[in-house]
Every structure is written in C-alpha cells, then in structure tokens.
Amino acid sequence: MTRYLIRRTLQVVPVLFGVSVAVFLMLRLIPGDVVDAILGSEGTASTERLAQLRAMFGLDRPLYEQYLTWVGGVVTGNLGNSIRTSRPILPDILARLPVTFELTALAMLLSLAAAFALVMVSAVLRYTRTDAAVRVLGLLGLSIPNFWLAAMMVLGVSMFARGILPTSGYVPFYTDPLGSLRSLLLPSIALAVANMAILMRMTRSSMLEVLRQEYITSARAKGLIERTIVYQHAFRNALIPVVTVAGVQVGYLLGGAIIIERIFALPGIGTLILNAISNRDYPVVQAGVLFVAASFVLVNLIVDVLYAYFDPRIHYG
Amino acid sequence: MADAQASARAASGTVAAPTVRRVRRGETWRRLARNELTVAGAIILAVVMVVAIFAPYLSPHDPLGMNASQLLQPPSREHLMGTDELGRDVLSRVIWGARISLYVGVISVTMAVVVGVTLGLLAGYHGGLIDDAINRVLDVVFAFPTILLALGILAMLGSSLTNTMIAIGVVYTPVYARLARGTTLAIKQREFVEAAVVSGARSFRIIIRHILPNVMAPLIIQTSLSLSLAILAEASLSFLGLGTQPPDPSWGTMVSTGQALVELSPWPVVFPGLAIVLAVLAFNLIGDGLRDALDPRLRS
Lengths: 317, 300
What we know:
CATH class of the largest domain in chain A: Mainly Alpha
Number of helices of chain B: 13
CATH superfamily of the largest domain in chain A: MetI-like
Strand content of chain A: under 5%
Oligomer: heterodimer
Order of helices and strands of chain B: HHHHHHHHHHHHH
Shape of chain A: globular
Distance between the termini of chain B: 16 Å
Largest sheet of chain A: none
C-alpha cells in the first residue's frame, strides 16, 4: 500500500507541472501581450510607460525565466498581486475558498444521496415503468442547464416561497451553520441535478452488472427477497466503480460552481475568476484557474487512494 | 471467430467485406428503430434542425427588431412566446438561437473529432515517445474542469463566436484522443492489421483503411454525447457573457439577459431554456440509443 501511495503521489507531479506550464502559457494567448490588453481600454500610453509595465510583469525577460520566477512564487505561496487592487491574490482566494468548498461538498452529498435512493428503487423495480421513469429522469437531469434550473428555482421561490429560502447571498458556516446551509440550499440543488443524473446512470449500470453475477443468483436460490439482495448484497459492490466517477465529478462541480456562484451572488472562487475576467485582471484569472485545477488534481489523487484502500481487489504492486 | 474471419477478408480486400458491413449496418438501424426513446430523440433533433435551417422563413419577426411599446409582453397571438426587455419577439430569437447552438456544436465537435482522433490514432499506432508525449499533454488538459478551461481560453482570446468554438473544441479534444488511442491499441493487435503490416502496407494506409473504420462505432456514440455537451457549454459560456455576444440570439445569452427580470416576466427565460433542454435531450437520447445498438457488450 505504501509503495502504491508513493507511486500514485509521484504521478501527480508531472501533471501539476504540466498544469502550471499551461496556466503560465495562457497569458501568452492574449493578442499582443498582457500590457496591451490592459492598456487597450485606457487609450494610448507612452513607449516609456509600456516598457515600464512590461518590465513590471517581467515580459522583457526570456520565457523560461518568466516561468521559473512565476512558478517559484507559486510554490512559496506567492500567486502575485491583482492588477486592479494591487492586493496579494492568495489571501483573496483563501478567503473565498470556504464558500466554493461548502457549495461543492453540499452539491456532491445531495447528488450522491438522490442518485443512490433512485437507483435502489430502480434496481428493485427494474424493467418496470418506475425504472423507466427513473431512467428518463436521469436523461432529463443531464439535459437541463444548471443556470436555467437556477433561474427557474429563483422564479419558483419568488412565486411560492418568498422569504422562506434566500435566493442570493451567503452566510458563513462558522457564524450560523443552519443559516449557511439555508443560503446554499438552492445553489447546491441547481449544481447537484446534472451530477446526480451522471452518478445515477453510472450506479444503475454498475448495479445491473452486479445483479447478473453468480453470487446474486445463489442469494436468490437461498430464498432471499429482492429488496435484501439489492440493499445488502449488490449495492456495496456496485458502488466500487462509482467512487472513481464521483472523484472526476468533483471537477464538474467545481466548474459548475463558477456559474452557480454568479447567479446566487455567492462570494466564491468562481465569482472571483469571473470578476477578474471582466476587469481584465489577468494575474487573478491565472491564479484562480491554477488553484481550481490543482485542487481538482489533488481531489482525484485522494479519491484514487481511498479507492485502493477500500477495494481489496486492487493490486498495489 | 466469425468476426475475425470477416475482418481478415475485409483486410485482404475480398468482396465479402462490404456485404458484412451492410448487414451490420442494417442490424444497427433496426435496433435504433426499435428503441422508442431514440426515435423520440431523432424526431426532436429533426425538428430542431429544420428550425435552424429554415430560420429566415419560420421566424415571424426580426429577431433583432426592438419595439419600445411591446416590452416584456406575455405570450399572445402576435408574439407566441412573448417579448423580451427590448420588445424583441422571443419566438423569433429562439428560432434563430437554434442556428447558433447547432452551428457552434457541430463546428466545435468536428474540430475536437479531427484533432483528437488524429492524435489518438498516432499515439495508439506508433506508441513509444509519440504516445508518451501525447498522453502527457492529454493528462494536463484532463486536469482542468471543462468549463474552467473554456473560460480560461476565452478570457485570454477574447469573447466571440469563433473563440467560443475554439475553446469548446479544445476542451473536448482529449476525449476523442483517448477513445481513438484505446481502440487503436486493441485493434492493432488483431490479425488483419498484422497481415496488412506483413504485406508491406504503409502506416498511413493501415490507419485509414483498417484501424479508422473500427474506431468509428465508439466515435459515433461519443460524438452524439459531445454535441449535447457542446450545446450546453456554448449556452453556459454565453450565459456568462463570454460566448456569443449580444444582440446575436444565443439561447444562453437570452437566459442571461432575461434572468434579471425573471420575476417580472419569466417568458424570455423559460422558452430559450426549454429549447436548450430539448436540443440537449435529443442528442442524449440518440447517444444512448447508439450506444445500446453499437456496443457489443450490450448486445448479449
């Protein structure tokens, strides 16, 4: 297990290196360069001013030197400063992290709970109308854009539940845990629906495969009722492949959180990135994208390790 | 075994191959036609395509024509889906929006298919350093949540329809590369490919004639699912103000602009959203049907 852990952790290093190079090179996609882009909205600037700004961003140095300086800063916790506020970026990201984390975690919990409940019903009543309805629900869940669902939920609350559930703003968890969950209920449902559909489809097909196996046939031969077979014998084994999918889905939720935060005015990392994009605050965009991508890579590492730990069939060698 | 023999005959270029392919194609069509949900998806898609192609003839009003005396009107005979905050006819905008959604979806997925499959075939067939290099790049692209990567690319390139297609194309390329690589690795071990190598066929010919046709089934399934994701991605990016730019009638942009006034008038938000759901659902239904019809593991 230790060897597996070390090997899997080492595999992350080249990916993180690649991610850092990709994020660094992102700024080079800007037509002209970052200084042109920033000053584009401020009219003409003197040659001296342009040169001064290019020197400030280190653009007058060779590319590899610029990368080493930047990545050196990243490794030591210095993600640079915002062009607009001149404040260091890392504290801003860390201040917003709890919002995005809480939203993503809540959405994942909701989608897992709903997916598993629906799959249980679907598996016990498989190939019936109820099963077909659950399958159609899964397809619908995949097809509804989260931003539209959010808008419809806001509309529904304004019509039928005004004042009961907040449709914007965030209450920090450490000041009022219940209020925090209330403020995130609608956003996390909007974020969870598509994820639930994906997890449900995956769990259902995994469950059907397990239900075809011999040990299930022998459980049936022993006279166990279908519900017991599904709940106690099939479900746990059907969950194994779902664990890795859930890990990958964290990436989907982190991406979706960017949109959902905007709709419900939540002060998370997504809002930070979107505001930075509209303000052309490129270092903040760069740092935000790097932070989210690196978090995604690390979450996948944790999921893989947990998967190996819980599934005895995995060979660690 | 029969499969291997048919493939070997196909490789040697005998007349049996087209017959085998035709029989299989007929079988696949029959399976698709028997699946009610797939047929429903195909009908919805046909409607969306007809609406997109004939938008200039079907649209009752100018989708960009503003009317200050008709702001935020509910559905009526004159405006079947009501009007938006600038008095524009929502139905006309939804009809023209179908064109943008399908256009962006098809172009961006085509880009992803062409680049991804080429990379995947090269990596899978040649192996070694080429495979390693392509795989490392794919690992990096996979490390980004898709919408985040598309956002990052658009933030740097600037918002426009073309850049939206590039961004969506880039984020879906790795899926095709992985798919083509995996299938190529499995196919190149088969006897008919080895026979072609021994007979002195060049790599390009082997890839095009013998490997690519065998990659087609998973590719077709993935393309249908990717088209649904691409339409969703375009709508999401436009919703965030980074995709299609106003006044062009993208469904995502329409939801975005209508959202601020949704409590006052829900129509400019409800109908474009339903249009997205229908278009995406159609591709998902077809993708599911294709998977059931083409995936040999499900045939048993």
